[in-house]
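Review form for a predicted model. The reviewer records the input and the model, then writes brief findings.
Reviewer: anonymous (R2)
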Amino acid sequence: MAEKQIAAGIICHDGKVLIGQRKKGKDLEFFWELPGGKLEEGETLEECLKRELIEELDLKIKVGDFFMKTRYEYEFGAFVINAFFATTESFDIPKICEHEQVLWVEPQELTNYHFPPADTPIIEAFLSTLK
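Model under review:
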């Protein structure tokens, strides 16, 4: 089974992190995730992250440093999540089309949300950098 490459953002603004809740009816429905999406042919992971955030949230971001990657195989496919730090200039989210809802949360509040197995190591590693 071919692995799908995913670009995900630890998107920060004014000390808070953006998370999105997966839509009802999708794989992993109602789980929370770091925003991002699948890499398309011919684009870099950074370009993918910027494109996905514009498409899904109409949110312009500045992609920063690569943070880490994880790999996880679900029954519906294998994924490599490539996480990058990113920033945006406002808490304003102009549109929401791929999520039930999105929230800006304090980093230490991330443990209050249920993330999929592929995302959990990224959340844990991010939180360990804050200590």
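Findings: The beta strands are 3-13, 16-22, 32-33, 36-38, 62-74, 77-87, 99-105.
Further findings: The chain has a mean pLDDT of 96.
Recommendation: see findings above.
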